[in-house]
């Protein structure tokens, strides 16, 4: 048994600090590990050597600042993680390793709203098929990240709004998928996972405070504060779609009038173009037409951008984020939507907060949520199992 404060327990804690830093970043040089953990360069060098000998990490030559360096990442054989993203009309699954490399990925259309049983059945089939495609045994799965298009109630683990996925009423998504796959499942809403995906792989890299805005059938924001997703005590933080813009506006599904969602979500926006463009439009098609010069579509997208900007201005005044990342199909409109967002932020946000803010399109497109699901597992999994599997008992304590 390790005695708290002993050399053995201190060494174990330092091992876990190094493994966690590498696990969260994907790969780091030894100098970067020293800076992020606060450990000395000599201690980091000794720990990396020990972890490499135990098969926990891999070390490859690289360069940093024009100088030779060594890049440290978790071993490709240490385990794999699964990401599952349920959208209202699609299912996307990805398999990645602990070095942040995506090994397999596939998406298929699915009416997720219709039946939770069908959705989970299809997810189970797709997960098993992709694991088989990687050639890695299912016993190497560390965990699964699961994204759903709605807030998760922290206490019950069920969807916080039955109006979003009526076919999922009373279902605990994490328990349901865990029962099918037999591994730990971590669940979050799609906006939070989009924020995680962009933070780790996309337009949020290098910042610690950002908001990821996703506009689809609803409007949500994933909030990152000091490098961590902020969910709130009930799991509903970031429901930016229900900021009131007009008390006399359209009735929202939440029961209030004039919510941001009623001016920006697809179900409210697309009917505006039906008289001139016919039925069957999607946001993706509207964006394509707008980029091609269609005046009606350009006007609608600009209006949506201005309304989103009003909500972003509220976020700026409350949280003062460094960056806002716009995700979903709407982000493909580029400056047609980003310009009006910035215009509203400049008009309604505190000047100092507006000056510090950058508004960017997401870099990952429709993959943001499933990659965020991978990142969720990487952030939630522990390090003890990695060390216990790789290191012999009684390892020496470096100082």
In a few lines, what is going on in this structure?
The chain is an alpha/beta fold. 42% of the residues lie in helices and 20% in strands.
Characterise this structure.
The chain is an alpha/beta fold and 399 residues long. The protein has 15 helices and 13 strands. The strands form three sheets. It has a five-stranded mixed beta sheet, sandwiched between helices. A hairpin with a 2-residue loop joins β10 and β11. The longest helix is centred in the C-terminal third of the chain and has 25 residues, at 295-319. The radius of gyration is 23 Å and the shape is globular.
Helix-strand layout with pairing:
Elements: H1 7-25, E1 27-29, H2 30-37, H3 41-53, E2 57-64, E3 67-74, E4 80-86, E5 90-97, E6 102-109, H4 116-134, E7 141-148, H5 173-181, E8 185-189, H6 190-201, E9 210-215, E10 219-225, E11 228-229, H7 261-264, H8 266-269, H9 274-277, H10 283-291, H11 295-319, E12 323-327, H12 335-348, H13 351-356, E13 358-361, H14 368-380, H15 384-390
Parallel strand pairs: 4-7, 7-8, 9-12, 12-13
Antiparallel strand pairs: 1-3, 2-3, 4-5, 5-6, 9-10, 10-11
Helix pairs in contact: 1-2, 2-3, 4-5, 6-14, 10-11, 11-12
